[in-house]
Amino acid sequence: MCGLTVSLFVFSTLVSAESAPHIVKSVTVRGTLLKVALATQVGQPYNADTIDRDVHRLWSTGRFGDISVQTGQQSDGTDVIFEVVEAPRPVLHKTTPADPHLHVKTVNFVGDPGIDPVELRRALRALKARRIIPRVPGLWTGWRLLPEYSLDAVDSDLGRLRSLYLSKGYFDSTVRIDSTERNEKDAVITFFARPGPHYETSEPIPQVCSSLLAQRREAQRQGILDFAATLQVQRTGTSSNFVSLSTSIDHGPSYRIGRIDFTGNRHYSDAMVRGNLLIDEGQLLDELLLRKSAGRINRVEIFEPITATDIAIHTNETRGIADITIHLKERKRGSWNFSGPVGPASFAGPLDASIRSRLPAWGRGFLELSSYTASVSLIAFAHPLLPVLSILPNGRLFPLLALSRPFTPGEGWKSGFSIVPQLGWQASALVYATTQIQHRLLPVLAGDRGLVPELPVAVEGSDANRTLLCEPPAPLIMPLRTAASFGVRFMGVLTGL
Prior knowledge:
Elements: E1 10-11, E2 24-30, H1 48-60, E3 64-74, E4 77-86, E5 99-111, H2 117-122, E6 130-133, E7 143-145, E8 148-149, H3 151-167, E9 174-182, E10 186-194, E11 200-201, H4 205-221, E12 227-235, E13 242-251, E14 256-263, H5 270-274, H6 287-300, E15 311-316, E16 321-327, E17 334-339, H7 345-348, E18 351-358, E19 373-380, E20 398-405, E21 417-419, H8 424-446, E22 455-460, E23 465-470, H9 478-489
Parallel strand pairs: 1-3, 2-4, 5-10, 11-13, 12-22, 14-16
Antiparallel strand pairs: 3-4, 5-8, 6-7, 9-10, 12-13, 15-16, 17-18, 18-19, 19-20, 20-21, 22-23
Helix pairs in contact: 8-9
C-alpha cells in the first residue's frame, strides 16, 4: 500500500526501572531543518508520556512520513533523539513558487479509481480550472482559467484525493502520481488510483468530522492553539469488512492575549487599526476571532491583504500568555483607475476614469485625515437600470470631485461615505446607503466560509497511516446566499455608478 507511514521505536540501554535517569540531558531532532516545538526539554524530568505526545504532535503536522525515537542513558542524564523523514504536507500551503509560464491543462486518472472521475476532479483545489464564462452546449465551449503548475499544488491535491477515499471508507486505497507530461506552456498530470476493499464503519465518517470540528471550535473558545486529532481504525472479528472507529484529541495549553502590536502602519494610527479587531488584550485567544479580525482589516482596503504569514503569535507556556504581532503593508498613497462596462452600460456600469490620493497623516479619530481619500473622476455613458434613481446626467461626460472615507468595520456608520459637491446631498446619501448595505450584508451572506481551515486528522490503522481532511460544512442555503451576494455587489448599477 502506498502512503505515509509512522513508526515509533524506542531503544534504550536501561536495564531496570531503578536505574532509570530522571533528567533529560539532550534533545536532538535529525532529518529536518524545520523548526519543531517539543515539550521534551533539556533539564526537565524524563517522561515517556511527554515523548509520546511529541511524536503525536509531529505526526499531526502532516510534514513527516516517518518518525522514530531513540533514548540512551548517560551518567549524567538521558539523551533523546527524534529521527524524522520529511513528507509533503497534504494541505494546501504553497511554499514553492509556481511557474507562471506553465499551466495545468488536464488532470487524468488511471488504474481502477472506483470513484467517478467527475467526483475526483471536484475534490481538486490547486489543480482545478476555474470556469470564467459558462459553457453553452453546441455553441460555445466556455472560457476556463487554467491553474499554475507547482510541485506543492500537485502534492496538495494528492493529499485531498487520498482524503476523499478515506472519507468513503477505502482505508487501503492507493493514490499516487503516475506521470507528469510537460511542454512549453501546459502540463498534463495523471494520478493512479485504486480504492481497495470498502469497509463499513461503526460511525459515518462525515459525522466523525463534524464532531471533531465542533471540539476544535470549543477548544479555540478556551484559548487553545494546538489541537491534534487522531482517528483509530480497528478491524473487528465479526466481519472482515467492518471497522470500529474511535477518536482521540491531543491539545496544548490555553492562552490569554498579552500584547497586540502592529508594524508597517506608518500613516495610520494603531487606534484606527485596532478598532477593527474582535479580540482584545486579556481575553482568551480565540483563533477564529483572530482570523475574522484580519478579514475586517482587509475589508478596509488601505493595506495589502493580510495572510497567515503576516500574523505572528509568540506564546509563553509558563505564563499562559500569547503576544500577537500583525505585520501590515500600506497600499500606495496615490492610484489611478480606468474602467469600462463589459456589456451594456445599464447593466455593467459607466465608463470611469479617476485619479485619487490619500490625505496626509494628521489628526485622530474621526478626523484622522489619512483615512480620507481625495479623487478626481470623469464619468461617461451612465445609463442606470432604473432611470428614476439616476444620480448622474445621462449620456455625457461628467467630472466629479470627491472626498471619501472607505468603509471601516470598526468605525461603522462613521465611514463609507463620499462628499461630492456636484451631485448634492441626495446623491451622496444614496451612495452612503448603498455602501453601508453592501459592506454589512456581504460578510453575513458569506458566513464563516474561508475563515475556518480544514482539520487534518491522523488516521491510524493496521496497514497504513493517512491524513483525513475534515472540511467545515458550507453555510446553509449557500446557493441563495451566492445569488443574494451577487445582487448586493451590483447595487451600484441601479444608480448608474
